[in-house]
Design the sequence.
């Protein structure tokens, strides 16, 4: 079956790179907002036969940025799915490297919605064939998918990048208990005996404020702090500060999805990070590691 990539507005570079890896055509979209605030999207084609009968790969991350928030990105994704199905796509594959709302995968306080799960149920309602995300915050919510669903691991790519920067005597620091499994898996990409140190993080579920503690011995070590998401940078900056106070030489702030909202860059660099490293799941200055090849390999 012939394949084509629809490059969503949030993933313009990654979408084109995936199409190039797959050696297939890519098409972008046209978007605008109506005066009442509603989103408009159309796939940028005049001829529906470019879509009908084809395997259509839609690439759209759903992270917030200065140009659109995650709600708009999700609506655009839903619109792309509907549009290609209406044009007779034979198979629809979604690549949403960052899936919004996955941090809402539990009820933390009475009265909340478990909206991460709802997002996947909404995608189910649109009847797609395959779904790919990268380092999803709550991998269990992928079980909501009624179709084939894959959570791609970007850790090796991120570790390779850190190695290319000449890091030595590496210690991986996990910024909270939730990240320990990920950090341990990440450390293995630097070598079998790379130590993993754990910080304890408590987030106040009412105010969102965090408190972090831990005693680390990082004297003359290059420290890699790895998280799935950097949002406001509070978690990362606090972990960096503790790492520096514990003697760290260089500190690499690594996240698959470096959203870098509000004052995150300022906080992280001021805390003492040498570099902020993310993937092109989020299209910004931290996207130093491309996911294009690994995603294309899954789609081949
Ligand atoms: C939470 O469990 C996530 O893994 C990240 O640690 C969190 O989203 C980071 O948020 P922020 O950058 O706002 O501290």
Sequence:
């Amino acid at each position: 079956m012939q394949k084509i990539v629809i490059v969503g507005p949030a993933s313009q570079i990654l979408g084109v790179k995936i199409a190039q890896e797959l050696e297939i055509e890519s098409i972008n979209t046209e978007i605008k907002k109506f005066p009442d605030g509603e989103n408009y999207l159309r796939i940028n084609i005049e001829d529906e036969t470019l879509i009908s009968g084809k395997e259509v790969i839609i690439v759209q991350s759903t992270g917030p940025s200065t140009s659109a928030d995650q709600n708009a990105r999700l609506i655009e994704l839903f619109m792309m799915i509907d549009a290609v199905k209406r044009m007779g796509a034979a198979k629809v594959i979604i690549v949403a490297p960052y899936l919004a709302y996955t941090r809402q995968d539990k009820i933390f306080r009475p009265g909340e919605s478990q909206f991460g799960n709802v997002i996947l149920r909404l995608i189910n309602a649109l009847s797609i064939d395959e779904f790919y995300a990268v380092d999803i915050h709550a991998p269990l919510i992928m079980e909501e998918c009624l179709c084939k669903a894959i959570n791609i691991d970007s850790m090796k790519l991120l570790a390779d990048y850190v190695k290319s920067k000449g890091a030595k005597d590496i210690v991986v620091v996990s910024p909270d208990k939730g990240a320990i499994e990920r950090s341990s898996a990440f450390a293995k990409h630097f070598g079998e005996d790379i130590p993993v140190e754990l910080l304890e993080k408590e987030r106040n579920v009412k105010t969102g404020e965090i408190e972090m503690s831990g005693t680390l011995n990082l004297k003359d070590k290059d420290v890699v702090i790895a998280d799935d998401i950097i949002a406001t940078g509070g978690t990362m900056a606090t972990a960096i500060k503790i790492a520096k106070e514990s003697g760290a030489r260089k500190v690499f702030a690594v996240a698959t999805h470096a959203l870098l909202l509000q004052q995150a860059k300022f906080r992280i660099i001021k805390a003492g990070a040498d570099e902020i490293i993310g993937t092109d799941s989020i299209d910004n200055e931290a996207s130093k590691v491309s996911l294009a090849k690994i995603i294309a390999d899954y789609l081949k």
The mean pLDDT is 96. The chain has two domains: 3-153+291-299, 155-280. Residues 103, 137, 175, 178-179, 227-236 surround ribose-5-phosphate (CB under 6 Å).
